[in-house]
Amino acid sequence: MATHELTLAGLTRILRESAGEDEGVDLDGDILDLSFTELGYDSLALLEAAGRVERETGIKLSDDVVGEAETPRLFLALVNELVTVGT
Amino acid sequence: MTADVVVTGIGVVAPNGLGTEEFWTATLKGVSGIDRISRYDPSGYPSPLAGEVLTFDAADHLSSRLLPQTDRMTQMALAASDWALADAEVDPAAVPEFGMGVVTASASGGFEFAQNELQKLWSNGPEYVSAYQSFAWFYAVNTGQISIRHGMRGPSGVLVTEGAGGLDALGHGRRHVRKGTGLVVSGGVDASLSPWGLVSQITSGRLSRSADPERAYAPFDVSADGHVPGEGGAILVLESAAGALERGARIYGTIAGYGASCDPAPGSDREPGLRRAVELALADAAVAPPEIDVVFADAAGVRDLDRTEAQTLAAVFGPHTVPVTAPKTMTGRLYSGAACLDVAAALLAMRDGIVPPTLRVPDQAADCPIALVRDTAREMTVRTALVVARGHGGFNAAVVLRAGPDSN
């Protein structure tokens, strides 16, 4: 069951907790339209982060969908669409 | 003629010292890292002692991107590989990536990481298990992470032969160098002291049940009742002698000989394979037994295994002749890390002209007729050393080391 929307701050917290932070990347900067690759995260890091997002929001993300969201903006849109539907 | 392969860098993570020089200083003084397990209450376990590396904090050495995806053994292996490369004064970024390989040994994989994830699995459900569990526990993960960290894409692999693995990795690394890979990072690090790791080791029946750190793990002693497990190991940089000399590298010594064998099946009346491994290594190095200055023993700490090793050494070298030592009495047995750490110690013994002691053998068994270097380090010239290692499951390995670049 969905509980709450995911914010950019929430996503960066989850990324830090689940996969750490690359040196030389400022997750608190303007990152909405940077690709996750540019932010130093590979597919496994995103899979790990997606697992935490699922646990915190109560939604279910398919692996394909996670792979398609290449930037934080796209990822948040995708998550929050599901959160809204579930509410 | 085959190309000589030399050691140009050493990185150590040991219970009695973090970093090569700290380990070596403690080892020469006879400082033991064995004590009651501190990271959890071991009172419910029959074997409460271990050689823990208390001073290793992975966050001091690795980025936050690596921490969530690595077991403790990998964190230690990565730190040790950094130190070994720095010691060898190699900048991997300046070397062609296919000209460098990685060969490590692993006895058990990442038990601590895996235990944490399995606990999440049974207490919270599969969605709580880390995606990194897919590889973080894996035997080959130390090799993989070292390869990724330093951009080493040449021939690489992992050897899984329990306590013999440290030598088997060096033997295999040497093959790659001889076939043309200029530099191979090689060695072994294990760290399976979490409760699940400890319980899995207890099933071998080879762990001491003593709770007294001053008495447990007494190899070749009449009281020997098993070993104390430890964590850590060593990572070495192997290069062709020609390449090392060309770039003016400091050379610790040559891996002059390597031999490996398997024991016959349990219950067989054939002799154990250890002697064959030792003789193969000596023959490979073209070294006669009297030329060996010191032996770093496997030192199982189990009566019948000690007897086999001591009598093997007595058969090859003569009873009570060549000095034999077991500095692992100060670290516990480090599984795949044990023999690489012994190789590091043997090379340092050559460098400094001093052999580290074996601790806690107050009453050496009469059926172990070897000349043990006991209690205090012995100053002596070491030109040639033999390192012996065995692994649970019938693995035997031996390496002959020679000081400096080889002459033949």
From TrEMBL, chain A:
This is Actinorhodin polyketide synthase acyl carrier protein. Residues 5-83 form the Carrier domain. It comes from Streptomyces albiflavescens. Keywords: Phosphopantetheine, Phosphoprotein. InterPro entries: ACP-like_sf, PP-bd_ACP, Ppantetheine_attach_site. PROSITE patterns: CARRIER (PS50075), PHOSPHOPANTETHEINE (PS00012). SUPFAM superfamilies: ACP-like. Gene3D superfamilies: ACP-like.
From TrEMBL, chain B:
SMART domains: PKS_KS. The keyword Transferase applies. This is Actinorhodin polyketide putative beta-ketoacyl synthase 2. The keyword Acyltransferase applies. Residues 2-403 form the Ketosynthase family 3 (KS3) domain. Pfam families: ketoacyl-synt, Ketoacyl-synt_C. SUPFAM superfamilies: Thiolase-like. InterPro entries: Beta-ketoacyl_synthase, Ketoacyl_synth_C, Ketoacyl_synth_N, PKS_Beta-ketoAc_synthase_dom, Thiolase-like. One of its GO terms (biological process) is fatty acid biosynthetic process. GO terms for molecular function: 3-oxoacyl-[acyl-carrier-protein] synthase activity. Keywords: Acyltransferase, Transferase. Belongs to the thiolase-like superfamily. Beta-ketoacyl-ACP synthases family. It comes from Streptomyces albiflavescens.
